[in-house]
Specification:
Two copies of one chain form a homodimer. With 414 residues, chain A is of the alpha+beta class. Chain A contains twelve helices and nine strands. The first copy, chain A, folds into two domains: 8-267 and 393-411, no CATH class; 272-336 and 343-356 and 368-386, no CATH class.
Chain lengths: 414, 414
């Protein structure tokens, strides 16, 4: 983008890209990190690729990007101990992420059969599939004293408080670093995460991971969750709304987070068996919307304004006070929802479906989510049908401009 | 099909379809089973639907059907106790399966808001998505004395023997009944199974379930598994081959299984971390094929004939004797493979990917699979990289002709 300055030193490095590019292919897997370690400027968005979302930009993709069909969400812990090592990790990941979102392997394959291939190869013959890679850093990363990043930790970046109905499983919570890989193909999303982790072998370990999907209506409308309700009807989308709700502006947080945002992840099990025994009226009063149309109760169309004070002829509220949308709206906070459904077999102990919602939201202020969740509290009628099992918060890095790398400002003096 | 005779009694029932059709919508969920119980003849394939695979036919769909992008595979146990109850279950499921493969809800929605809806609704606005539903019955079903089906149990229908490297988890094995739902959309596949189980509430319970995917190359070729190798290159496809390998002919088993087949399911965890540390040469010698092209080692093209005796200039076998394809070929047996990949987060105890292959094969004689597996034995180089965690066998019912129902001959005197 126009406001990005490329320094002379960077330009000199940039001019060496061809040589470095060749070196990667020949060096095999062991050499990926070495070959790519400092050459984060060499790879460019291939804008002629089909089904391609650009990696470079003011903001990371995968946030305001129209939601894709599949996600592989990985939470990582790191065993690194110095800031410089961490910086190199993100520098190494940057060109790999560009290649992956181009729909390219992270390195040439088959050049030397006696070493492991640079790329694991399972996305061969698939295209970019609108892959986006979104990187974030968790509160625990800043708590490792050896990184010396304590002063860079924003006060908002802390584990979410315990909410009334939480039944969290520690194995599905937290993490030092997250990579959200969204794509219209599940193998492309998985391939991306697998190769980023593999290239960082010995530096990061997988803490937890979750796959999810969105099934897009043929008419292009809002996808439905597994309760059959449209999910994500009220979402900021215009540039100005996104600035108000999502993107951290200059001076609104630590400097390195300008143009970043916060990602909140909740693994919400849906008790489909209980839901399926509930009348349609009960279901609609639980959400506060009509199921089929998605309209607020008493209204006709999905995008009709929600008025939680409107009443019927007898003066009774049309949208029950304890419905999900009424309580959520009362918080008067705005977040960007970007959820996926999941269905992972059964919960062995109960025999019920292990299925539900990968709730993912983006907001410049995590308190917006906390306020909404507190407003839902113990009262939300939806509580009867859901249980929160996993939880995490990550500060999403600002977007990367060509010539820079992921999180550069975190490591600079900003 | 032309050889299907419709009896006069069936025709009389068929003429009542409109009335029964209305009754379903009005009766709410509680009435689905009742309303549809005996009206298995009323629903027809809607051949004008887009992305639609017919339900009716000599053979069940989902077997020789070109593989779809997604699968939801459910193994059920039943708490029913008489043959008549079991018969009614399959009679009830038949019209629901036709509706589902038509891309229709199993009943009208929203007709009475004070009862649960007939259909759970999450596939609204999605199309048929090439949904296929394949029903099978497991050995345990015949072992329940109260069904009186002991004499109908084919001798081939028994739990697979223990294979040398098996590390099976009982929670992922066996089952009385299976439903394989394949579709090009994950929500459509899940919706189908959920609604079939829900309509059979109190009659069946979910024993285990597994989701999987196939990522189709843009050039239309064979999909790659998570080891990046093409999976399913050698597969019977011509009508005559399928008759030899897959479809049980008249007199080849119990009469009720004519036009049926056996489904073998194996949940095979792939140790991606170990695989990814192996050289390309080692990987190719493990399978006996080149990774990128899929050709047998020493050949150029994927569909080149596999000759396990061909040697290089020094007389050394090109395809190692302990490679997967060499050993599999030595068994001289043919099966129809129809596999999917899976990726279900991580194995908590190890932190490794819980990912791999949902191996599904169809064969008229389960011994074909057993012979191949025994030939692989302890020798197969692939053993180092995989562990079998789940296992099941089901006798797949014959296809259903209009006017009949799933498994009719199992309950008749044939």
């Amino acid at each position: 983008m126009s406001d990005q300055k490329i320094t002379r030193r960077k330009m000199l490095k940039l001019s060496g890209m061809t040589i470095a590019g060749v070196a990667i292919g020949a060096s095999g897997f062991g050499g990926v990190a070495k070959a790519l370690g400092y050459d984060f400027m060499q790879v460019d968005d291939n804008t002629s690729t089909k089904n391609k979302i650009n990696f470079y930009g003011r903001y990371q993709s995968g946030i305001s990007t129209p939601v894709q069909k599949h996600v592989y969400f990985a939470s990582l812990d790191t065993s690194l101990s110095t800031k410089e090592e961490l910086q190199k990790l993100f520098q190494m990941w940057t060109p790999l992420a560009v290649r992956l979102t181009n729909g390219e392997p992270i390195g040439d394959s088959s050049s030397n059969a006696y070493v492991p291939t640079v790329d694991t190869g399972e996305s061969m013959n698939l295209d970019a599939s609108n892959l986006t890679l979104t990187f974030g850093v968790g509160p625990s990363l800043f708590d490792k004293a050896s990184f010396g990043l304590t002063s860079k930790k924003p006060s908002e970046l802390k584990d979410l408080p315990h909410f009334p109905k939480d039944q969290l499983d520690a194995a599905l919570c937290g993490g030092d670093i997250c990579i959200q890989a969204c794509a219209d193909d599940p193998q492309v999303a998985f391939h991306a995460v697998r190769n980023l982790i593999r290239a960082a072998s010995g530096k990061v370990t997988l803490k937890w991971a979750q796959t999810g999907f969105n099934s897009m209506p043929k008419d292009g409308g809002t996808p439905r969750n597994l309760f059959a309700f449209k999910d994500g009807t009220v979402n900021p989308s215009k540039s100005e709304e996104l600035k108000q709700t999502v993107w951290i502006g200059n001076g609104e947080s630590k400097g390195w987070l300008t143009n970043g945002t916060y990602l909140i992840f909740r693994r919400i099990q849906m008790h489909l068996e209980t839901w399926d025994r509930t009348s349609l009226k009960g279901q609609e009063e639980t959400f506060g919307r009509h199921r089929d149309s998605g309209a607020p109760i008493g209204m006709k169309n999905e995008f009709d304004q929600v008025d939680i004070t409107s009443t019927d002829a007898n003066g009774k509220l049309l949208i029950p006070e304890n419905s999900h949308i009424s309580l959520a709206k009362k918080a008067k906070r705005s977040i960007l929802r970007r959820a996926f459904s999941y269905s992972s077999g059964i919960v062995e102990s109960t025999g019920n479906y292990d299925a539900g919602l990968m709730f993912i939201s983006f907001q410049k202020d995590p308190q917006a989510f906390i306020d909404i969740q507190n407003s839902l509290g113990r009262v939300d009628r939806l509580n009867e049908y859901i249980t929160h099992r996993g939880s995490a918060i990550f500060a999403c890095l600002p977007g990367v401009e060509k010539g820079s790398y992921l999180g550069e400002n975190l490591f600079s003096t900003l």
